[in-house]
Amino acid sequence: MSQFRFARLALMLAAIGLNAAPALMHSASAQDKTAPADAAAQPKPDTVRPELFKLLDSAQIKPLMDAKNYTEVQNRIAQAEAFPNKTPYEEYVLNRIKLSHASATSNDQASIAALEAILASGKLPATDKPQFTQALAGMYYNAKNYSKAIEWFKRFQAENPNSDAANAPLVRAYYLSNDYANAMKLLRPQLEAAEKAGKTPSSEDLRLYASAANKVKDDAAYLYGLEQMITYYPNDDVWMDSIYRGVVRKPGFSETNYPDVLRLEFAAVKVLTPEMYTELAELALKDGFPTEAKKVMDAGFAAGVLGTGGSAAQHRKLRDRATKEAANDAKNIAAGEASAAKAKTGAGLVNLGWAYVTMDEFDKGIGFIEQGIAKGSLKAPDEAKVRLGMAYLRAGQKDKAISTFQSVKAGGGLSDIAKYGIILANHPNPGGNNK
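The structure corresponding to this sequence follows.
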Protein backbone atom coordinates (compact mmCIF):
# COMPACT_ATOMS: atom_id res chain seq x y z
CA MET A 1 0.00 0.00 0.00
CA SER A 2 3.06 2.28 0.09
CA GLN A 3 2.33 3.46 -3.47
CA PHE A 4 -0.43 5.68 -2.05
CA ARG A 5 1.28 9.06 -1.84
CA PHE A 6 0.21 12.65 -1.81
CA ALA A 7 1.26 13.44 -5.35
CA ARG A 8 -0.37 16.88 -5.16
CA LEU A 9 1.53 17.99 -2.07
CA ALA A 10 3.94 20.11 -4.07
CA LEU A 11 1.04 21.99 -5.61
CA MET A 12 -0.68 22.26 -2.26
CA LEU A 13 2.42 23.63 -0.58
CA ALA A 14 2.97 26.09 -3.38
CA ALA A 15 -0.60 27.27 -3.04
CA ILE A 16 -0.34 27.86 0.69
CA GLY A 17 3.10 29.45 0.58
CA LEU A 18 3.88 32.68 -1.21
CA ASN A 19 0.46 32.97 -2.80
CA ALA A 20 -0.92 34.28 0.47
CA ALA A 21 2.19 36.25 1.35
CA PRO A 22 1.40 39.46 -0.55
CA ALA A 23 -1.64 40.12 1.61
CA LEU A 24 0.44 39.53 4.70
CA MET A 25 3.19 41.87 3.59
CA HIS A 26 0.85 44.69 2.55
CA SER A 27 -0.22 44.98 6.16
CA ALA A 28 3.30 46.04 6.96
CA SER A 29 3.34 48.82 4.38
CA ALA A 30 0.17 50.22 5.90
CA GLN A 31 1.72 50.81 9.30
CA ASP A 32 2.69 54.23 10.61
CA LYS A 33 5.52 55.67 8.49
CA THR A 34 6.76 57.49 11.57
CA ALA A 35 7.36 54.27 13.46
CA PRO A 36 10.79 54.06 15.15
CA ALA A 37 13.55 52.67 12.96
CA ASP A 38 14.98 50.75 15.89
CA ALA A 39 14.90 47.06 15.02
CA ALA A 40 14.02 46.22 18.59
CA ALA A 41 11.02 48.57 18.64
CA GLN A 42 7.74 46.78 19.11
CA PRO A 43 5.44 46.94 16.07
CA LYS A 44 1.70 47.24 16.13
CA PRO A 45 -0.21 43.96 16.41
CA ASP A 46 -0.17 41.82 13.27
CA THR A 47 2.20 44.07 11.38
CA VAL A 48 5.82 43.67 10.38
CA ARG A 49 8.49 46.26 11.21
CA PRO A 50 9.97 48.00 8.17
CA GLU A 51 13.47 46.60 8.68
CA LEU A 52 12.13 43.06 8.71
CA PHE A 53 9.69 43.84 5.94
CA LYS A 54 12.58 44.75 3.66
CA LEU A 55 13.88 41.19 4.02
CA LEU A 56 10.56 39.42 3.56
CA ASP A 57 8.70 41.67 1.16
CA SER A 58 6.91 39.29 -1.19
CA ALA A 59 7.36 41.76 -4.04
CA GLN A 60 11.07 40.96 -3.76
CA ILE A 61 10.87 37.34 -2.62
CA LYS A 62 8.56 36.14 -5.39
CA PRO A 63 10.83 37.19 -8.30
CA LEU A 64 13.72 35.46 -6.53
CA MET A 65 11.67 32.29 -6.15
CA ASP A 66 10.51 32.46 -9.77
CA ALA A 67 14.12 32.78 -10.85
CA LYS A 68 15.06 29.87 -8.56
CA ASN A 69 17.50 32.07 -6.73
CA TYR A 70 16.99 30.04 -3.59
CA THR A 71 20.35 30.98 -2.14
CA GLU A 72 19.34 34.63 -1.88
CA VAL A 73 15.98 33.68 -0.39
CA GLN A 74 17.75 31.51 2.21
CA ASN A 75 20.11 34.43 2.95
CA ARG A 76 17.12 36.70 3.62
CA ILE A 77 15.53 34.04 5.82
CA ALA A 78 18.75 33.72 7.83
CA GLN A 79 18.90 37.48 8.34
CA ALA A 80 15.26 37.55 9.40
CA GLU A 81 15.85 34.73 11.87
CA ALA A 82 18.61 36.79 13.48
CA PHE A 83 16.28 39.75 13.82
CA PRO A 84 15.74 40.40 17.56
CA ASN A 85 12.51 40.34 19.50
CA LYS A 86 10.25 39.11 16.71
CA THR A 87 6.56 39.14 17.51
CA PRO A 88 4.36 36.04 17.04
CA TYR A 89 2.98 37.61 13.87
CA GLU A 90 6.46 38.28 12.48
CA GLU A 91 7.41 34.68 13.24
CA TYR A 92 4.28 33.61 11.41
CA VAL A 93 5.17 35.66 8.33
CA LEU A 94 8.73 34.36 8.39
CA ASN A 95 7.48 30.76 8.57
CA ARG A 96 5.26 31.37 5.55
CA ILE A 97 8.38 32.35 3.59
CA LYS A 98 10.28 29.36 5.03
CA LEU A 99 7.49 27.08 3.85
CA SER A 100 7.64 28.45 0.31
CA HIS A 101 11.43 28.07 0.21
CA ALA A 102 11.38 24.57 1.71
CA SER A 103 8.69 23.44 -0.70
CA ALA A 104 10.54 24.81 -3.72
CA THR A 105 13.80 23.15 -2.66
CA SER A 106 12.11 19.85 -1.71
CA ASN A 107 13.26 20.14 1.88
CA ASP A 108 10.59 18.03 3.55
CA GLN A 109 11.87 18.40 7.09
CA ALA A 110 11.94 22.17 6.79
CA SER A 111 8.45 22.12 5.28
CA ILE A 112 7.17 20.08 8.20
CA ALA A 113 8.77 22.42 10.74
CA ALA A 114 7.34 25.49 9.00
CA LEU A 115 3.86 23.97 8.75
CA GLU A 116 3.82 23.04 12.42
CA ALA A 117 4.97 26.53 13.41
CA ILE A 118 2.33 28.16 11.19
CA LEU A 119 -0.46 26.00 12.63
CA ALA A 120 0.72 26.63 16.18
CA SER A 121 0.96 30.40 15.69
CA GLY A 122 -2.73 31.11 16.02
CA LYS A 123 -2.34 33.61 13.17
CA LEU A 124 -3.48 31.41 10.32
CA PRO A 125 -6.91 32.41 8.94
CA ALA A 126 -9.55 29.82 9.78
CA THR A 127 -10.35 29.33 6.11
CA ASP A 128 -6.75 28.26 5.44
CA LYS A 129 -6.34 25.92 8.39
CA PRO A 130 -7.84 22.75 6.81
CA GLN A 131 -5.47 22.95 3.85
CA PHE A 132 -2.42 23.47 6.06
CA THR A 133 -3.44 20.68 8.42
CA GLN A 134 -3.96 18.26 5.55
CA ALA A 135 -0.63 19.26 4.01
CA LEU A 136 1.22 18.62 7.27
CA ALA A 137 -0.44 15.23 7.70
CA GLY A 138 0.47 14.40 4.13
CA MET A 139 4.08 15.42 4.66
CA TYR A 140 4.34 13.10 7.65
CA TYR A 141 2.68 10.32 5.66
CA ASN A 142 5.12 10.63 2.77
CA ALA A 143 7.96 10.71 5.29
CA LYS A 144 6.60 7.38 6.64
CA ASN A 145 6.09 8.91 10.07
CA TYR A 146 2.70 7.27 10.30
CA SER A 147 2.05 7.99 13.97
CA LYS A 148 2.35 11.74 13.35
CA ALA A 149 0.35 11.42 10.13
CA ILE A 150 -2.44 9.71 12.06
CA GLU A 151 -2.34 12.47 14.69
CA TRP A 152 -2.75 15.23 12.12
CA PHE A 153 -5.27 13.42 9.93
CA LYS A 154 -7.41 12.83 13.01
CA ARG A 155 -7.09 16.48 13.91
CA PHE A 156 -8.22 17.39 10.39
CA GLN A 157 -11.24 15.11 10.77
CA ALA A 158 -12.15 16.57 14.15
CA GLU A 159 -11.96 20.12 12.82
CA ASN A 160 -13.68 19.30 9.50
CA PRO A 161 -16.38 16.73 10.32
CA ASN A 162 -18.13 17.23 6.99
CA SER A 163 -15.07 16.41 4.91
CA ASP A 164 -13.94 12.92 3.96
CA ALA A 165 -10.62 14.11 2.50
CA ALA A 166 -8.61 12.46 5.27
CA ASN A 167 -10.42 9.12 5.28
CA ALA A 168 -8.36 7.27 2.67
CA PRO A 169 -4.91 8.41 3.85
CA LEU A 170 -5.81 7.81 7.49
CA VAL A 171 -6.83 4.23 6.72
CA ARG A 172 -3.53 3.68 4.93
CA ALA A 173 -1.54 5.30 7.71
CA TYR A 174 -3.11 2.87 10.18
CA TYR A 175 -2.42 -0.05 7.86
CA LEU A 176 1.21 0.92 7.23
CA SER A 177 1.79 1.37 10.97
CA ASN A 178 0.54 -2.23 11.41
CA ASP A 179 -2.62 -1.08 13.19
CA TYR A 180 -4.79 -3.31 11.04
CA ALA A 181 -7.74 -3.31 13.44
CA ASN A 182 -8.16 0.46 13.23
CA ALA A 183 -7.66 0.40 9.47
CA MET A 184 -10.54 -2.08 9.18
CA LYS A 185 -12.68 -0.22 11.70
CA LEU A 186 -12.40 3.00 9.72
CA LEU A 187 -12.68 1.46 6.26
CA ARG A 188 -15.62 -0.93 6.76
CA PRO A 189 -18.29 1.81 7.14
CA GLN A 190 -16.91 3.50 4.03
CA LEU A 191 -17.26 0.31 2.01
CA GLU A 192 -20.76 -0.35 3.32
CA ALA A 193 -21.82 3.25 2.63
CA ALA A 194 -20.54 2.99 -0.95
CA GLU A 195 -22.44 -0.26 -1.43
CA LYS A 196 -25.64 1.22 0.01
CA ALA A 197 -25.33 4.26 -2.24
CA GLY A 198 -24.82 2.09 -5.31
CA LYS A 199 -21.25 3.29 -5.77
CA THR A 200 -18.28 1.12 -6.68
CA PRO A 201 -15.57 1.05 -4.02
CA SER A 202 -12.00 1.28 -5.22
CA SER A 203 -10.11 -1.91 -5.85
CA GLU A 204 -7.32 -0.69 -3.59
CA ASP A 205 -9.73 -0.12 -0.68
CA LEU A 206 -11.10 -3.64 -1.02
CA ARG A 207 -7.66 -5.22 -1.29
CA LEU A 208 -6.45 -3.23 1.70
CA TYR A 209 -9.45 -4.26 3.79
CA ALA A 210 -9.07 -7.93 2.90
CA SER A 211 -5.33 -7.80 3.56
CA ALA A 212 -5.84 -6.19 6.96
CA ALA A 213 -8.49 -8.76 7.86
CA ASN A 214 -6.18 -11.57 6.81
CA LYS A 215 -3.34 -10.19 8.94
CA VAL A 216 -5.50 -10.12 12.07
CA LYS A 217 -6.99 -13.52 11.14
CA ASP A 218 -10.55 -12.21 11.04
CA ASP A 219 -12.02 -14.83 8.72
CA ALA A 220 -15.47 -13.26 8.49
CA ALA A 221 -14.05 -9.85 7.58
CA TYR A 222 -11.64 -11.41 5.10
CA LEU A 223 -14.50 -13.25 3.40
CA TYR A 224 -16.47 -9.99 3.23
CA GLY A 225 -13.53 -8.40 1.44
CA LEU A 226 -13.28 -11.30 -1.00
CA GLU A 227 -17.00 -11.21 -1.75
CA GLN A 228 -16.80 -7.51 -2.44
CA MET A 229 -13.91 -8.18 -4.80
CA ILE A 230 -15.82 -10.80 -6.81
CA THR A 231 -18.74 -8.39 -6.90
CA TYR A 232 -16.82 -5.44 -8.29
CA TYR A 233 -13.46 -6.72 -9.54
CA PRO A 234 -13.85 -10.44 -10.27
CA ASN A 235 -10.82 -12.52 -11.15
CA ASP A 236 -9.82 -16.15 -10.85
CA ASP A 237 -7.88 -15.87 -7.60
CA VAL A 238 -10.57 -14.10 -5.57
CA TRP A 239 -13.28 -16.35 -6.99
CA MET A 240 -11.36 -19.48 -5.98
CA ASP A 241 -10.60 -18.15 -2.51
CA SER A 242 -14.17 -16.94 -1.98
CA ILE A 243 -15.73 -20.25 -2.94
CA TYR A 244 -13.29 -22.20 -0.80
CA ARG A 245 -13.82 -20.05 2.28
CA GLY A 246 -17.47 -19.19 1.70
CA VAL A 247 -18.69 -22.67 0.79
CA VAL A 248 -16.32 -25.60 1.24
CA ARG A 249 -14.65 -24.52 4.48
CA LYS A 250 -17.82 -23.30 6.20
CA PRO A 251 -19.12 -25.48 9.04
CA GLY A 252 -21.87 -27.84 7.90
CA PHE A 253 -20.71 -28.21 4.31
CA SER A 254 -21.80 -31.54 2.83
CA GLU A 255 -19.48 -33.39 0.45
CA THR A 256 -22.54 -34.52 -1.51
CA ASN A 257 -22.75 -30.97 -2.83
CA TYR A 258 -19.14 -30.87 -3.98
CA PRO A 259 -20.01 -31.50 -7.67
CA ASP A 260 -22.08 -28.33 -7.67
CA VAL A 261 -19.18 -26.46 -6.07
CA LEU A 262 -16.98 -27.58 -8.96
CA ARG A 263 -19.67 -26.55 -11.44
CA LEU A 264 -19.79 -23.12 -9.85
CA GLU A 265 -16.01 -22.84 -10.07
CA PHE A 266 -16.04 -23.98 -13.68
CA ALA A 267 -18.61 -21.27 -14.49
CA ALA A 268 -16.84 -18.51 -12.53
CA VAL A 269 -13.15 -19.20 -13.10
CA LYS A 270 -11.25 -18.95 -16.35
CA VAL A 271 -8.55 -21.53 -15.53
CA LEU A 272 -8.96 -24.27 -12.91
CA THR A 273 -6.28 -26.54 -11.51
CA PRO A 274 -5.67 -29.88 -13.28
CA GLU A 275 -7.22 -31.70 -10.33
CA MET A 276 -10.41 -29.65 -10.53
CA TYR A 277 -10.87 -30.33 -14.23
CA THR A 278 -10.35 -34.07 -13.87
CA GLU A 279 -12.39 -34.35 -10.68
CA LEU A 280 -15.38 -32.56 -12.18
CA ALA A 281 -15.12 -34.65 -15.35
CA GLU A 282 -14.97 -37.89 -13.38
CA LEU A 283 -17.94 -36.90 -11.20
CA ALA A 284 -19.93 -35.88 -14.27
CA LEU A 285 -19.24 -39.25 -15.90
CA LYS A 286 -20.19 -41.04 -12.69
CA ASP A 287 -23.49 -39.13 -12.49
CA GLY A 288 -24.33 -39.74 -16.14
CA PHE A 289 -23.38 -36.41 -17.73
CA PRO A 290 -20.67 -37.32 -20.28
CA THR A 291 -21.17 -34.19 -22.40
CA GLU A 292 -20.42 -32.08 -19.35
CA ALA A 293 -17.31 -34.18 -18.73
CA LYS A 294 -16.18 -33.71 -22.33
CA LYS A 295 -16.63 -29.92 -22.16
CA VAL A 296 -14.70 -29.75 -18.91
CA MET A 297 -11.81 -31.77 -20.29
CA ASP A 298 -11.79 -29.80 -23.54
CA ALA A 299 -11.61 -26.58 -21.54
CA GLY A 300 -8.68 -27.91 -19.51
CA PHE A 301 -6.79 -28.85 -22.65
CA ALA A 302 -7.58 -25.51 -24.30
CA ALA A 303 -6.24 -23.69 -21.25
CA GLY A 304 -3.00 -25.64 -21.46
CA VAL A 305 -3.56 -27.10 -18.00
CA LEU A 306 -4.29 -30.68 -19.07
CA GLY A 307 -2.33 -32.91 -21.42
CA THR A 308 1.08 -31.95 -20.10
CA GLY A 309 3.51 -33.33 -17.54
CA GLY A 310 3.47 -36.75 -15.95
CA SER A 311 -0.33 -37.01 -16.01
CA ALA A 312 -0.71 -36.21 -19.72
CA ALA A 313 -1.58 -39.80 -20.66
CA GLN A 314 -4.27 -40.04 -17.98
CA HIS A 315 -5.74 -36.74 -19.11
CA ARG A 316 -5.97 -37.89 -22.72
CA LYS A 317 -7.51 -41.19 -21.65
CA LEU A 318 -10.16 -39.40 -19.57
CA ARG A 319 -10.96 -37.00 -22.40
CA ASP A 320 -11.24 -39.85 -24.91
CA ARG A 321 -13.63 -41.68 -22.60
CA ALA A 322 -15.74 -38.55 -22.10
CA THR A 323 -15.82 -37.87 -25.83
CA LYS A 324 -16.95 -41.41 -26.63
CA GLU A 325 -19.65 -41.50 -23.94
CA ALA A 326 -20.87 -38.02 -24.91
CA ALA A 327 -21.40 -39.18 -28.50
CA ASN A 328 -23.39 -42.21 -27.32
CA ASP A 329 -25.44 -40.10 -24.94
CA ALA A 330 -26.35 -37.65 -27.70
CA LYS A 331 -27.74 -40.57 -29.74
CA ASN A 332 -29.69 -42.17 -26.93
CA ILE A 333 -30.81 -39.37 -24.59
CA ALA A 334 -34.27 -38.97 -26.11
CA ALA A 335 -35.05 -42.59 -25.29
CA GLY A 336 -34.95 -41.77 -21.59
CA GLU A 337 -37.60 -39.06 -21.69
CA ALA A 338 -40.60 -41.39 -21.37
CA SER A 339 -39.25 -43.32 -18.39
CA ALA A 340 -38.25 -40.10 -16.62
CA ALA A 341 -41.75 -38.73 -17.10
CA LYS A 342 -43.35 -41.92 -15.67
CA ALA A 343 -41.09 -42.08 -12.61
CA LYS A 344 -42.64 -41.51 -9.18
CA THR A 345 -40.16 -38.75 -8.34
CA GLY A 346 -38.86 -35.80 -10.33
CA ALA A 347 -35.22 -36.82 -9.97
CA GLY A 348 -35.05 -38.44 -13.41
CA LEU A 349 -36.50 -35.35 -15.08
CA VAL A 350 -34.02 -33.08 -13.27
CA ASN A 351 -31.08 -35.24 -14.37
CA LEU A 352 -32.40 -35.50 -17.91
CA GLY A 353 -32.85 -31.74 -18.04
CA TRP A 354 -29.30 -31.10 -16.85
CA ALA A 355 -27.97 -33.48 -19.47
CA TYR A 356 -29.76 -31.48 -22.17
CA VAL A 357 -28.40 -28.24 -20.69
CA THR A 358 -24.83 -29.56 -20.96
CA MET A 359 -25.58 -30.19 -24.65
CA ASP A 360 -26.60 -26.51 -24.96
CA GLU A 361 -30.24 -27.45 -25.54
CA PHE A 362 -31.28 -24.97 -22.91
CA ASP A 363 -35.00 -24.63 -23.53
CA LYS A 364 -35.55 -28.38 -23.48
CA GLY A 365 -33.23 -28.92 -20.53
CA ILE A 366 -34.70 -26.14 -18.42
CA GLY A 367 -38.18 -27.42 -19.15
CA PHE A 368 -37.38 -30.90 -17.88
CA ILE A 369 -35.69 -29.58 -14.72
CA GLU A 370 -38.73 -27.41 -13.98
CA GLN A 371 -41.03 -30.40 -14.51
CA GLY A 372 -38.90 -32.49 -12.16
CA ILE A 373 -39.03 -29.88 -9.42
CA ALA A 374 -42.78 -29.48 -9.87
CA LYS A 375 -43.30 -33.27 -9.71
CA GLY A 376 -41.63 -33.31 -6.31
CA SER A 377 -40.60 -36.20 -4.07
CA LEU A 378 -36.97 -35.10 -4.44
CA LYS A 379 -34.46 -36.02 -1.75
CA ALA A 380 -32.84 -32.59 -2.07
CA PRO A 381 -35.22 -30.16 -3.82
CA ASP A 382 -32.87 -27.21 -3.27
CA GLU A 383 -30.09 -29.07 -5.04
CA ALA A 384 -32.39 -29.25 -8.06
CA LYS A 385 -33.01 -25.51 -7.73
CA VAL A 386 -29.26 -24.87 -7.75
CA ARG A 387 -29.03 -26.95 -10.92
CA LEU A 388 -31.91 -24.97 -12.44
CA GLY A 389 -30.24 -21.69 -11.50
CA MET A 390 -27.03 -22.83 -13.19
CA ALA A 391 -29.05 -23.85 -16.25
CA TYR A 392 -30.61 -20.40 -16.49
CA LEU A 393 -27.15 -18.89 -16.04
CA ARG A 394 -25.72 -20.92 -18.92
CA ALA A 395 -28.69 -19.98 -21.06
CA GLY A 396 -28.05 -16.28 -20.40
CA GLN A 397 -31.34 -15.82 -18.55
CA LYS A 398 -29.90 -13.70 -15.74
CA ASP A 399 -33.12 -12.62 -14.02
CA LYS A 400 -34.52 -16.15 -13.84
CA ALA A 401 -31.17 -17.45 -12.60
CA ILE A 402 -31.13 -14.90 -9.79
CA SER A 403 -34.73 -15.52 -8.70
CA THR A 404 -34.11 -19.27 -8.69
CA PHE A 405 -30.93 -18.96 -6.64
CA GLN A 406 -32.77 -16.68 -4.20
CA SER A 407 -35.25 -19.46 -3.51
CA VAL A 408 -32.52 -21.82 -2.28
CA LYS A 409 -32.54 -21.98 1.53
CA ALA A 410 -31.03 -25.40 2.34
CA GLY A 411 -27.77 -25.80 4.20
CA GLY A 412 -24.88 -28.08 3.48
CA GLY A 413 -23.41 -25.46 1.15
CA LEU A 414 -26.37 -25.18 -1.23
CA SER A 415 -27.51 -21.72 -0.10
CA ASP A 416 -23.87 -20.56 -0.23
CA ILE A 417 -23.48 -21.90 -3.77
CA ALA A 418 -26.69 -20.07 -4.67
CA LYS A 419 -25.41 -16.83 -3.13
CA TYR A 420 -22.30 -16.97 -5.28
CA GLY A 421 -24.45 -17.90 -8.26
CA ILE A 422 -26.26 -14.58 -7.81
CA ILE A 423 -22.97 -12.69 -7.63
CA LEU A 424 -21.78 -14.47 -10.76
CA ALA A 425 -24.99 -13.63 -12.58
CA ASN A 426 -24.59 -9.96 -11.74
CA HIS A 427 -20.82 -9.76 -12.13
CA PRO A 428 -19.39 -12.46 -14.38
CA ASN A 429 -15.64 -12.93 -14.33
CA PRO A 430 -14.24 -11.80 -17.69
CA GLY A 431 -12.99 -14.89 -19.48
CA GLY A 432 -14.76 -17.33 -17.14
CA ASN A 433 -16.57 -20.44 -18.36
CA ASN A 434 -20.06 -19.07 -17.70
CA LYS A 435 -21.58 -20.42 -20.88
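Residues 251 and 433 are 28 Å apart (CA to CA).
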